[in-house]
Write a structure and sequence with these properties.
This protein is an alpha+beta fold. The chain is built from 15 helices and 34 strands. Strand 28 and strand 29 (646-652) form a beta hairpin. Helix 9 (409-429) packs antiparallel against helix 10. The longest helix has 23 residues, at 350-372.
């Protein structure tokens, strides 16, 4: 099908892609804008930083690569990922006379730039790539100092050991010194001729290593890097989405979960929320990553991601990263509890739950001691914050009037959710001695929070909505809908959930995303329109809204499927804040696609609940293979044939385990409904004609559904 993903609302360049091997410390930032490519990196390493401190490596080095034709820069360039999804850059410069392609990947020993030049004109042309850090003291070209010295290399000179190799150019017919800080590789090509060269950023090499670098098989190292990423993406659950823009976007975002993960201190491997400004581990986004990886059947990867976050607990039981940059954010223990709960439900790993239980219980007891401090009457009345967690740090744009510190409802949603998970873990493990205490903590905290929520909701014309602080409208709308999902505090049809969605949807950007969801009051945090809002619509069975939000989020990304943390509303905005390549949006895309295709509800399962109607209408297969669910692995494929007015497919559950019920949503084009289904399928047609339902499905089930005119209700 023709993709609906066109990046029409991308922010202004530069657009960033980070290249590296999976889980690598050696990352190279690629910043793209018309006419040139900037490479930037650090020689520092997160293994030397205090665990979970907000302390990030400084970007030490950057070099500009500018392709030229007949001595002039190209007027235009484009950029995309290799295969549409790998963290490998394809950067094209072209006009009628010729083309230069820069392909960039993170290899085992270096960041590798393959330069391919082609003469498409009718006469000989000169092609070149100028590699330079203009106006800087370091690095320097030895050939600038001594005409007899190497001129195809930049050495550190300062900022590092003087003879450290910063950049090396190979394969040009000529290499000229352009300044104290640069060189130019050049090729003279007749019509139809092609040539290849290389620009290499060694991770650690010195002048004495230059002979080996010149003889190295860079083509082989580049091919190995590409093969490694293709193999990684071929593991785990596999989605089948007819829209290539969504399919590639899902895979690109999945790959970036491994780009933004690397070794940190004390032998941990940790996720980081960004590749530069937020390149430091915490227990927020990384635990959303853990849930996403578990849901895609990548359980070992999820467990590795969790380990540091779970270990960040104080001796007093505080599980909110008391020594990390998440300290005073009382919701972090809820993120940890969510990861614990999902890992157990998706794997059945009782040992992992047993290991986590003491942390869950200690944290619940610690929170009870904190809440006891706020159970104080004022003039004989309960204040709005009675029984809630005490003042803490909001983050995410939450504000208590103009104060960054206060009593924030979203953090309380997550904290009470953590108490709930502690109770559920005790029940699952048969912890009969601890269960009464933990249940009392949870029920008391939940009752106090519900009362605060009821009293502190904001009235509007015909509805009420959930604020960040009880009784106040200040700050962002982040986290309000977590009361529904995943924290399960309020039901899907609760008037405060409906009212909060209504309030959010009164403040939409031109591209259909929600405003004031982070630090920028008039800007957008794209991730939150998926992570908070689209997920809420899915839980409410509003798949059309959820799928439209998925498309809107993708179209606000760059052609590299990357997003800054927050941005202005309009297409081409230069208002960007936070990390240039942030983690929360890609993990929100991964989770939203998964939940659109497979989503649990209690003891039942929804399939294709949020699939865009155009996917089935395309006539191409839609589905997922090997999705991890609370009921074991699930696979399905469905395909619509408009000529015969049939949808055919198969759904596979475990033979000995499965949900109490499953609904397959056949999201047909408007004006069509399911009229009947083959008897051998064991399914029944939903009363509104929108799909099929099985009771206690097991094994492989095949179906043929007949489609008729008439809208599904």
């Amino acid at each position: 099908m023709q993709s609906r993903v066109d990046f029409a609302y991308a922010f202004a360049p530069p657009h960033r892609l980070t290249v590296a091997r999976p889980d690598s410390s050696e990352k190279t930032l690629l910043d793209l804008q018309s006419g040139y490519l900037r490479l930037a990196w650090t020689t520092d390493d997160l293994r030397r930083f205090p665990l979970a401190a907000f302390a990030t490596p400084r970007t030490d080095w950057d070099v500009r690569l500018q392709p030229e034709l007949d001595g002039h820069p190209f007027a235009h360039s484009t950029w995309r990922r290799l295969d549409g999804c790998l963290p490998v850059l394809e950067n094209d410069y072209r006009d009628a006379r010729g083309a230069v392609r820069l392909q960039v990947a993170g290899g085992a020993t270096a960041a590798i730039v393959r330069v391919e030049v082609t003469n498409t004109g009718d006469r000989t042309h000169q092609f070149s790539v100028c590699c330079e850090r203009p106006g800087a003291l370091a690095p320097y070209n030895p050939g600038w100092v001594d005409p007899a010295a190497d001129r195809d290399v930049l050495l550190a000179g300062w900022q590092d050991r003087a003879d450290r190799v910063v950049l090396l150019g190979l394969g040009g017919e000529e290499c000229a010194v352009v300044s104290a800080n640069g060189f130019r590789l050049t090729w003279n090509l007749a019509p139809g001729e092609q040539a290849t060269g290389w620009v290499i950023r060694p991770y650690r090499a010195y002048a004495a290593d230059l002979p080996g670098l010149r003889d190295h098989d860079w083509a082989g190292e580049l091919a190995a890097a590409v093969a490694e990423w293709r193999a990684l993406l071929a593991r785990g659950a596999q989605v089948r989405i007819p829209d290539p823009g969504v399919q590639q976007g899902f895979l690109a975002c999945l790959a970036d979960l491994y780009i933004m993960r690397e070794p940190v201190a004390d032998g941990y491997l940790a996720s980081v929320p960004g590749t530069e400004a937020y390149r430091a581990p915490n227990s927020g986004e990384p635990l959303v990553v853990s849930v996403a990886l578990d849901q895609l059947g990548r359980h070992e990867d999820a467990a590795i991601t969790q380990r540091l976050c779970f270990d960040l607990q104080g001796d007093d039981g505080c599980w909110d990263d008391p020594q990390g940059w998440g300290h005073l954010m009382w919701g972090l223990s809820g993120f940890k509890a969510w990861a614990v709960s999902e890992h157990y439900r998706l794997t059945g790993d009782r040992g992992a739950l047993e290991e986590a239980f003491p942390r869950l219980a200690a944290a619940s007891r610690w929170r009870e001691r904190q809440r006891a401090r706020t159970r104080v009457l004022v003039d004989g009345q309960r204040p709005l914050t009675y029984g809630l967690m005490p003042r803490g740090f909001g983050d995410c744009g939450l504000k208590n009037d103009d104060d960054l510190y206060g009593v924030f409802l979203p953090h309380n949603f997550w904290a009470v959710f953590a108490d709930r998970v502690a109770v559920e873990a005790a029940e699952a493990l048969g912890k009969t001695e601890e269960l009464p205490e933990l249940r009392a903590i949870y029920e008391t905290a939940r009752a106090d929070l519900l009362q605060a929520l009821e009293a502190g909701a904001i009235p509007a014309e015909g509805y009420r909505w959930i604020p960040g602080v009880p009784g106040k409208t200040s700050g962002s709308r982040w986290g309000a809908l977590n009361a529904l999902f995943p924290c399960r505090l309020l039901p899907a049809d609760h008037e405060l959930i409906t009212g909060t969605l209504r309030h959010l949807e009164q403040h939409l950007s031109p591209g259909g995303l929600h405003v004031n969801t982070g630090w920028m009051p008039d800007g957008m945090w794209v991730a939150i329109s998926l992570d908070n809002v689209a997920e809420a619509h899915l839980v409410r069975g509003e798949g059309d809204v959820a799928s439209e939000l998925l498309y809107a989020a993708l179209n606000h990304g760059t052609p590299l499927y990357t997003w800054c943390e927050e941005r202005g509303q309009v297409a081409g905005t230069d208002q960007c804040s936070g990390d240039r390549q942030h983690l929360w949006t890609p993990v929100a895309v991964v989770r939203c696609v998964r939940d659109c295709l497979v989503m649990e509800e209690g003891e039942g399962l929804h399939l294709a609940r949020g699939a865009a109607r155009g996917w089935l209408a395309s006539g191409e297969p839609v589905g997922i293979e090997g999705a991890a669910t609370h009921f074991g692995p699930v696979s399905y494929t469905l395909q619509y044939d408009p000529g015969s007015a049939r949808v055919t497919g198969r759904v596979c559950f475990q033979a000995d385990r499965g949900p109490d019920w499953a609904v397959l949503h056949l999201r047909l084009p408007a004006g069509l409904r399911v009229a009947s289904v083959s008897a051998e399928s064991g399914a029944v047609v939903l009363p509104d004609g929108s799909g099929l339902r099985w009771e206690a499905p097991r094994g492989e089930l095949r179906f043929t559904a007949l489609v008729a005119e008439g809208s599904a209700r």
